[in-house]
Design brief:
By secondary structure, the protein is of the alpha/beta class. The chain contains 15 helices and seven strands. It folds into two domains: 42-52 and 272-343 and 383-418, no CATH class; 54-266, no CATH class.
């Protein structure tokens, strides 16, 4: 007689933490176990930010999603944002050959089915609702970056421009942001057609009735003049692809100000169009770099140094050098629970502090030229680009890659040129 049947293998634990990652390294702080492809995407974005070049656009959603990690769980004042892979928009003059598709991750679809605890009523911040908050939706924003085609008649060889649509659970509205001044009405018609015909299971219910209810909930935030003012000052066209930095800045504003009811009203200024405000791309750079070092617990100190060495910040990006150093100092203080060396609160460029800080950078940058040349026309990072240092022999130490000084990681400053 045969023995009893073997017990079935236990089902694998469902992925934990922010989508699309599986945060098995540390579930409390949401430290992800990066796949090869995910780490390659983040490396490509870090390189482009350090050099002032355009990132490979496919890698941007991964980097922005990673900003949810290493903070702990979604909280009342820091709800998460999810970024769908970039969608390519069919030009207005072309017929739709097939309906576009938005396929949300299953975890995002499940989160959309959970109740959203409102910010407006104050219910989200009441201590007695802490248990209710844990079982409610974690994501306030569902974001879709769009890639449009633009033809500027030999004024520039660039053919791509980027915009973003953000669904806000607080208002049940979709806000479309377009920060570029050329051909804006055309892109608005294109995005209207996209949302009218897109298939989005778990986001827009099937049927004409559901679609008719969805379309009036789209708001068009197109009162941006920074690109036009910049073109006037430069006496030349602003490359359309600069909008990729602007889209990333709009995304960062939403993630940094998740408890702000009016966060969809993004400031119309050059700092946001270029993403060079202190709490925008510099903060993203510092957070992603620190996240990678924290998540890769098996890296020795030599491998960490070789990883950081790739991201030496260009001397012509003085504002990036200053702000990244500030943020890295803040992360060090956070781990030691020291006084915060950098004030992380408040809107960018608002009040005396914001103006003074910007003036400090302008004074340091003044007189420091640096030819940009055609460098910004390049795309940074092919997939797997980080392989070049992956095989570096690791140093023998048991400190998890931290130096004698622990979490400050002061050795990073010299390698990053800050």
């Amino acid at each position: 007689m045969s023995g009893p049947a073997p017990a079935p293998a236990p089902a694998p634990a469902p992925p934990a933490g922010p989508v699309p990652f599986n945060c098995t390294v540390d579930r409390v702080r949401n430290l992800p176990n990066f796949t090869h492809e995910q780490l390659g995407d983040i490396t490509a974005v870090l390189k482009s930010l350090a050099r002032g070049t355009y990132p490979r656009f496919e890698s941007v959603p991964t980097a922005l999603n990673a900003y949810n990690c290493n903070w702990g769980s979604s909280t009342a004042d820091e709800p998460w944002a999810y970024f769908h892979p970039v969608t390519t928009i069919t030009p207005e003059e072309e017929k739709l050959k097939q309906r576009p598709v938005v396929q949300l991750d299953n975890r995002i679809q499940a989160d959309l089915q959970k109740p959203w605890v409102s910010i407006r009523t104050g219910e989200r911040f009441e201590e007695e609702n802490e248990r209710k908050l844990k079982s409610s939706a974690q994501y306030r924003f569902i974001c879709f970056i769009h890639k449009h085609h633009i033809d500027m008649h030999r004024q520039t060889a660039q053919k791509s421009i980027f915009t973003i649509s953000i669904w806000d659970r607080e208002w049940d509205e979709l806000t479309y942001h377009d920060a570029y001044h050329v051909d804006r009405p055309k892109r608005r018609r294109e995005i209207q057609r996209f949302w009218r015909y897109v298939r989005a299971p778990g986001f827009i219910a099937a049927g004409e009735e559901a679609r008719e209810k969805f379309m009036p909930r789209i708001r068009y935030r197109t009162v941006y003049h920074a690109s036009e003012r910049l073109a006037d000052a430069m006496r030349e066209i602003v490359p359309p692809r600069h909008t990729l930095w602007g889209v990333m800045a709009i995304a960062m504003e939403h993630m940094n100000e998740g408890a702000d009811l009016q966060v969809s009203i993004v400031p119309d200024c050059v700092d946001y169009f270029g993403g060079c405000g202190r709490r925008l791309l510099p903060r993203l750079f510092a957070h992603l770099l620190w996240l990678c070092l924290d998540a890769k617990t098996d890296w020795g100190i030599e491998r960490q140094r070789n990883f950081v060495r790739q991201f030496r910040i260009s001397d012509r990006l003085r504002w990036m050098q200053i702000y990244v150093r500030h943020h890295l100092q803040w992360y060090s203080a956070w781990f030691y629970d020291e006084d915060d060396p950098v004030e992380e609160k408040g809107g960018e460029g608002e009040g005396e502090e914001g103006r003074g800080e910007r003036e400090e950078v302008e004074e340091e940058v003044e007189g420091e030229g640096g030819e940009k040349g055609g460098e910004a026309e390049k795309e940074e990072g092919e997939k797997g680009e980080w392989d070049e240092w992956e095989e570096v022999e690791e140093a023998e130490n048991d400190d998890g890659g931290r130096d004698e000084q622990g979490y400050p990681r002061d050795w990073m400053y010299e390698l990053l040129n800050i």
